[in-house]
Fold these 4 entries.
Entry 1:
Amino acid sequence: MKKYITSTRLAADIGGTFTDIVLETPTGLFTAKVPTDTVQPELGVLAGVEVVLSDARITSADVDIFIHGTTLATNALIERKGEKTALITTEGFRDSLEIAYESRFDQFDLMIDKPEQLIPRNLRFTVKERMDVRGNVLIDLDEAAVVALSDRLNAKGIGAVAIGFLHSYANSKHEQRVRDLLIAQGCKAEITLSSDVCPEVREYERLMTTACNAYVQPIMARYLRALEVAFHDKNFTCPIFLMTSGGGMTTLESAIKFPIRLVESGPSGGAILAARIAQQLDESKVLSFDMGGTTAKISLIEDFKPKTARNFEIARSARFQKGSGMPVRIPVIEMIEIGAGGGSIAHVDQVGRLNIGPESAGALPGAACYGKGGTKATVTDANLLLGRVDPDAFAEGKMRLNTKAAEDAMTQDVGQPLGISAHQAAFGVTEMVEENMANAARIHSVEHGVDLSHFSMIAFGG
């Protein structure tokens, strides 16, 4: 394996609100925080990179390695902003994604709403073929049906295709043949094979992992290729690596092919950092708390290692309830992620109750205090009014905050509906969002059978 000299290291983390850049050089550490460009994320990265290179007085050619973490794949899945995707599976198994585990995540809710499927039923197609559990062919692939299907896919404007046949983990021959036939028929869509993404037993998780990978692949491929071109144009010669959900690193090519492995890319980097700090402080039991602009991430670390798993559930629709999201089979650092961050919007509902999130003001327009056109009261506005955030030192003083705008938003959205002052409203907002995050930590600890009273907390983010 090729070894890299890494005396000068550059890192970027794209969040839902901010893009953070860190440059480590032999002479010191340089950082930058810039708003995330939601349309062209690479532009936010480049803007931050230019700042740190200028501060360090070095050029792009001096950088030895670039490491990148991002929540773009997660956000696309949560917000349903991926590519129009089709599924091709074995005849008779069209509704496997819908049937799931044949159970409800809340057994006592008679009016339960199951999570909306990424791939609607009219875009799920079947083909006659069959393998047995050992990979022996029971029914040959109907190639004529595949050829006919390719015309339908093109006519429907499909941008991504997920192919998942029964027992393809044992023999991927039919999946590969379907891919070859589609390409030969001029299919322009990105194609994902379940035998490549998740060659494991358990049909439902394998199909869901494949569907999720296909759904975000065109978006992530466009972004990562644009980032590669942009770095090349800026004369970077260093290799580009991406953080994976399991806390490791992968190449750009692998990330483009398997973006599902990046769903917890950014948060996993935070858990690895917390584990390193825990080891330095000799704290064997730690709760890692990562406060972001859009979400808060909580992870348990014991014996200086974050807990890991092979299952991860994306976008739980019911509050913290297991089974209400999309289960995928990838190596991941176990954590609980909730829609509570600096940009979480505070509002009073129809019955006069204060609610925080999960909607976020994001990068644009952002919190009212950012002065970018935002008018909704957020958690950041509340913390600013309570003096917990210094308006002159935010983002190392490079982004001044507008206290008057924060007060106006808090008065309009929370104070007036409840008949209280802006500062009382701000206190209520922070009390509620902090309880939401504490409750998530308690649930996460109970699920893993640990007593949080024996744990120290390492908090970071911002």
Note: Residues 203-233 form the longest helix (31 residues).
Entry 2:
Amino acid sequence: MSDNRFSGRTVLVTGAGSGIGRAIALAFAAEGARVVAAGRRIGPLEETVALAEKAGGTAVARVADVSRATEVEALVRGVAEEFGSLDVAVNNAGVFRGGPVADMPEEDWRELFDINVTGVFLALRAEVAQMRSQPRGGAIVNVSSQLGAHMQRPGATAYAASKAAVTSLTRGAALEYIADGVRINTVSPGATATTMSLRPGESEAERVVRMKDESPLGRVAATEEVAQAVLYLASDAAGAMVGTDLVIDGGATL
């Protein structure tokens, strides 16, 4: 381990079974944290735990659906009871449903908001309640998107609306709870090396070509790059960062 910024701290990561969530969980484990990898399916979570342990870290898997209040409350309560505190929470769980908004099935719209927005609200509510009861407080990082508060893209209107809500929710909650010692911020990734950034029918090689034209950086972000931004916001070094929305999109929204 090259650094131990989070040694002795307990970190909860939702949506930790793949993609950005997995990279975040592994990055925290590599820096000494006790990581609770949460998600809806145990198989992918156990893979994340195995990767963390193989690298010398500490992690456990916990199944929870963030859109269900009872499951979220039980998850946070269980973390605090098992490890004694909840020091950092990363609300990363999210889904993408695309298509022109007027043609979108109502069930897709509801799923987007149930998971992307209500899921963050329920997690925040439980996490803040726990953290404000702790002498050291805690840090929360919500994962939003470049789509929403920063830009729009045809075919992603509903998703963008859900992520804009996450950005606004974060800013308001950050003001409400900083006096209680709970620091809340957001990261907003652009196109990242996950399946979510692939267009329908597009291969990874085709994405490489497309991004050379679409992004000033000329490529997608690595999941590890997003993870390092999350770790910074959660660290003591970012103690004055409150309600910040850190955009990680290779300059696409400039």
Note: The longest strand covers residues 182-189.
Entry 3:
Amino acid sequence: MAEPRVYVVDDDVDVRDSLVWLLDSVGIAAEAFAGPEEFLSALDPEIPGCLIVDVRMPRVSGFQLQERLNRMGVPLPVVFCSAHGDIRMSVRALQQGAVDFIEKPYDPQQMIEVVQTNLLRATDRFAQRDRKRQVEQRLQNLTPRELEILRLVIDGLPSQNIARQLGTSVKTVDVHRARIKNKTEADSIATLVRDILQNDVTV
């Protein structure tokens, strides 16, 4: 996985430059963008990172950018900055998945610590997303019937109960279970179920 990076999105050039300089002074590379459109056009959604974004910007607000990232499934930790913050605004940001809300002018040491924390969080989030994708990919070749049986296995039903519920034989259910195991290249059905549950995969 690529090294995580920091994205600074703010329409105030002085704020952008000062924040990039601050992070660079402690060895944290940051990229600055004047607005959400410029940022999105340069964003590689496969590279982990932390986004520091102003709330109020022309055309597209920080909240709208956050909503777009959520729809895209890009798990960037988002830190909002605003000179006009209030409790309602910070609550909205956190409800939509932001990790922090910092008022301008910010304390430099606080900002550095927030960024360092969220670069680690970004690495974890992107690794988790990759694990979820891998599990989802392993399930793609399953037939509708195999997926149906797998859902019942996830619910904790043994083969006898599954057979009774589906009106088929235990042997048929066991054949499907074996196919599920082979197609997903799982060590066992139990480990497959564990991977599905741990990575919050919808079957």
Note: The chain has a mean pLDDT of 91.
Entry 4:
Amino acid sequence: MGSKNKLKRFNENATFNNVFQPTREEVTSDNFSMKGKWNKEVFKNNHPLVLELGCGKGEYSVGLAERYPNKNFIGVDIKGARFWRGAKTAVEGGMNNVAFLRTQIELIENCFAEGEVDEIWITFPDPQIKYKRTKHRLTNSEFLQRYKRILKHNGIMNLKTDSEFMHGYTLGLLHGQGHEVIYANHNVYKNEGSPEVVTAIQTFYESQYLEQNKAITYIQFKIK
């Protein structure tokens, strides 16, 4: 993407009422005004709040919001030029139950209050295969504890990935630490018992993976 195009998207994001772009300083100093107030201030209802972390173009956030009008969705990504597409689609479609937050996932606890979130989706994250990059892996122990703090009691986690490595790593960690695995499958499109929501929404890259015959894996779990 050219820098001109990126700038255009950043400028357009600033005009969308469904995009929130706090400064790093606002977030790290715990001065982010939306923390604990997403439903009240943004969605103006008490519906369940669902996050998509590392939302990319926002296809999954928008797809979920279309399917579940009685839930509120927030796509989170540091790359605003990417989620511009999802934000624009939502604005043009008059969708009031989806928003986007530009921040780093490491700072997620500074953006949501304890127990504010009902469910989290992690879709096709970078598996960070090299050992020295494990601290960036979105399902490592440290990240799981961050999610636990913002999730309601019995909140649900979902991991959907094309990476067998990420699937196996996460499953091993969950079992090893005694978390509750509700459902796990290493090839959801070949399994008739897969939850419908997992196969009903496809991202652009996911459809490419499927064309290449790559297995799409899925885990649903609760953090103990």
Note: The chain has two domains: 1-101, 114-224.
